[in-house]
Write a sequence for this structure.
């Protein structure tokens, strides 16, 4: 079965976390996602509780650092 390619676009923080951790609850996925962002010096600046959406440019940086979520 062929997977659809991951699309670089606007994503909500929780939405992107759920894409990276689809088997977890929304809260747990967001927690794990935040930890991954904090661990990476290039992504650390994206950990901000006031930010609810990532721009396509931010998503591209995340994917470049963490890999495609699929």
């Amino acid at each position: 079965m062929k997977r659809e390619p991951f699309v670089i676009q606007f994503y909500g923080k929780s939405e992107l976390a759920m894409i990276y951790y689809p088997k977890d609850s929304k809260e747990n996925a967001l927690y794990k996602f935040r930890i991954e962002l904090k661990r990476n010096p290039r992504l650390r600046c994206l950990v901000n509780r006031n930010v609810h959406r990532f721009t396509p440019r931010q998503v591209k940086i995340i994917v470049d650092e963490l890999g495609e979520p699929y």
Remarks:
- The chain has three helices and two strands.
